[in-house]
Design a protein that fits this description.
A seven-stranded antiparallel sheet has the order 1-2-3-4-5-6-7, with no helix packed on it. With 119 residues, it is an all-beta fold. The radius of gyration is 22 Å and the shape is elongated. The protein is built from no helices and seven strands.
């Protein structure tokens, strides 16, 4: 958090971020000596900016960016049998005093399948 003051004007910014993920390595149920490798990753960052003059809120803005992704493949098999897969979704959203921006991109195996704007 940061706070900047100038006379009766106060700007406050709160920031947060985080990540989570895991890697699994399990025997494949149909391919002898093969292993399913799966990686999941979620990342986000957020900000919240408020501006007050005296006790009056004059601006309130929030942003959030998220990334969700998964990659998987079969280990210990020839390359042409690995069946590599990957998907991801990235979203950026900004809202605030009288404005809104929202954009989502999704891809499967490197091909974008969703490019959506909303609000």
């Amino acid at each position: 958090m940061s706070v900047v003051t100038s006379g009766a004007r106060v700007e406050r910014t709160d920031l947060s971020y985080g990540k989570s993920g895991y890697l699994s390595f399990l025997p494949n149920t149909t391919i002898p000596n093969g292993y399913d490798v799966v990686t999941d990753l979620d990342i986000y960052d957020r900000s919240h900016l408020t501006t007050t003059v005296g006790r009056h809120l004059v601006a309130d803005r929030r942003t959030e960016e998220t990334y969700d992704g998964r990659a998987s493949w079969i280990y210990n098999v020839p390359r042409d049998q690995r069946h590599a897969m990957g998907n991801q979704t990235v979203r950026y959203r900004a809202t605030g005093t009288g404005s809104c921006y929202d954009h989502t991109l999704s891809a499967i195996n490197g091909v974008y399948v969703k490019d959506f704007y909303g609000c």
